[in-house]
Amino acid sequence: MTIFIPEDKVLEIKNAADIVEIVSENVLLKKTGKNYVGLCPFHTEKTPSFTVSPQKQIFYCFGCAAGGNIFSFSMKRDGIPFPEAARILAAQYGVHIPAQNMSIGQEQRRSEREDLLVVNRHAMDFFHKKLLDSPSGKRAVSYLEKRGINNETIETFGLGYAPEGWNNIVDLFLRKKISLDVVEKAGLIVKKEKRSNFYDRFRNRIIFPIFNLNNHLIGFGGRVMNDEKPKYLNSPETPIYNKRRSLYGLHLAKQKCRENKTVYIVEGYFDLLTLYQNGIQNSVATLGTSLTPEHVQILRSLIGTDGSVILVFDSDDAGMKAALRSIGIFLNAGIDARIMVLPSGHDPDSYILEFGQESFLDLAKKAQGLMSFLINVSIDKHGLSVEGKIRVLSEVREALVSIDDSVARSLYIKDFSERIGIEETAVLEKVRELSFRSRGSTQRKNFSDNDPVPKHNRAGSAEEDKGNTFHGKWARLEWQVVSMMLQFPPILSEIGNRDILDYFEDNRLKAIGQLLLSQKDRSNINLVDVINLIKDKGQKSIVASMAIVENEWDYDGCLNILARFESIRSKKEKTLINKIKEAEENNDFELLVKLLKKKQKMAVLVEKKKMALLK
Q1: How far apart are the first and last CA of the chain?
Q2: Which of these, 58, 61, 60, 51, lies nearest to 30 by C-alpha position?
Q3: DSSP three-state, residue 36
């Protein structure tokens, strides 16, 4: 069952919200004429094809065909249903949505995310208070001071302390009469094996609250203050916490990232806190996981195609492995990413505390390109003896395989072969071997000498593009008619009188056209209203694609389109008769049956139109 949001409240949210403001939370937008453009947050692209219309309050991506209004964007961005998107936007813009009478099942589904956010807030308040006000928290405060973290940073990031003991959080939520099952789902407590009771996940640790891009508290990280293992412990994946899309400090860094068009990526919580505290606030930290395409996509949407990412890793084995895993992701996303090499024995935290902000920024200017860094570190490690070159090639070819762009890959192979003095064809052969092993024999048929590594299909784009593509003269004409109906409502009555939609072959376009006709008597219908009336995601995207394209329609121009439509339909009828004759002559009975059915359908439509004229 669907949770009901009153129509007047939906309208109030639409009137209060601004799509440019909402999209700008995730995408760096640039004004181009009446519209804004940026890199799509829903697929990887190098050239901006994501368009936002403030006038029409819609968005559309010409690359992956995602489109819609403020609700569609929120739903697709956060992976949530319409009611939840509406409630989040309502809260953001101060619109009160009254509680509805719902079944227990409906209430549970609707409130799960909100319950988890509330539980996390209670936990954060508890940890923060324990840090500042409890005797046991004094040791944690002393530890933070030794690490150079001041009170302002503690407050800005909401740092806390999880005291020793197995039941502090358990007891907290028992007192608050909040279900421990919900607290477990938030990742704060763990169920004991073969028993029904729970224990705290975080114990005797500094606590780092983790927020998403929209300032929602989604999880926690914890660090011990001694040599115990594990040193770091993060919340598990939950319905609101996805590590592949989460970066520590992103909620505070996003505006500075947009302004500077640069983002620093570090590996640790303290690295991030120290950089932020020392004025380098366009910084984020990974959360105990490798960088993912989703991370890069989020950052790219903030800094734009001409922005830069600087990875601040150590030049040891761990740093090299991190660089190796990141190269393909950044290059395929079309981002200028560089490695900042710190002096031996330093991490970002210790370096900036010892040498200061200015020295750190000077060192950042010398950051190396990802491939250059990888090659240099590998050569330093193995040397350029015969055996050394073999090991260098073995390490670097993994990065070369991960690059999807065949031109970029070829250029890197050429440069690499010259650097270490190995024939380009030999490097190419090694890349080919690894590609076949890692991607399987099913893709070998896509391999050629000119394109040594098979290209990946852009995730999700094929199906989405297919859904909004209309091939052939007739399909494109149907699309044009519906676009005309959408952008020039005065023509709706004429289209209804001529029964134009009865001759449509594309069911999606026909359904949209019928919806528009049903609204022809409303004087105040607009694009956003139409999108809200459509339930099908594919149809929403089609409408957005039509609406985002500016066309200057007038009545005479519309009539010309309709005349062309009827003329082509008449020619199609004649062509059909000729095909029927040809099928009869060739004794192709299967084709003949299909064509006769089509002719019968056309005859019914013609008869229907005649009857309408006689009334």
Answers
A1: 43
A2: 51
A3: strand
Distance, C-alpha 410 to centroid of its chain: 29
Whether 9 shows a pLDDT value over 70: the answer reads: yes
Whether 493 and 522 have beta carbons less than 8 Å apart is answered as: no
Closest Cα to residue 309, out of 381, 355, 400, 373?
Answer: 373
Q: Which tens digits make up the pLDDT trace of 574-590?
A: 666 767 777 677 776 67
Whole-structure pTM over 0.70, yes or no?
no
pLDDT score, position 204: 95
CATH class of 7-92: alpha beta
Give the CA count within 13 Å in the CB-facing half-sphere of 426.
Answer: 11
Convert the pLDDT of each residue in 512-521 to its tens digit.
888 888 877 6
What is the rounded CA–CA span in Å between residue 97 and residue 83?
Answer: 11
In CATH terms, the fold of domain 103-241 is DNA primase DNAg catalytic core, N-terminal domain (3.90.980)
How far apart are alpha carbons 261 and 28 in whole angstroms?
9
Burial of 340 (0-12, 13-18, 19+ CB in 10 A): buried
* Helix, strand, coil percentages for the chain (3-state, nearest 5): 60, 10, 30
Write out the H or E segment, with its range, that includes residue 410: helix 406-420
Class of domain 245-382: alpha beta
* Buried b / exposed e along 51-75 (16+ C-beta atoms within 10 A): bbbbebbbbbbbbbbbbbbbbbbbb
C-alpha to C-alpha distance for 380 and 382, rounded to whole angstroms: 6
pLDDT higher than 60, residue 455: no
Under the banding of pLDDT at 50, 70 and 90, the label for residue 443 is very low
d(CA 545, CA 75): 18
Q: Where are the domains of the chain?
A: 7-92, 103-241, 245-382, 468-614
CB 477 within 8 A of CB 564: yes
pLDDT of residue 192: 86
**Quick one: pLDDT at residue 614?**
45
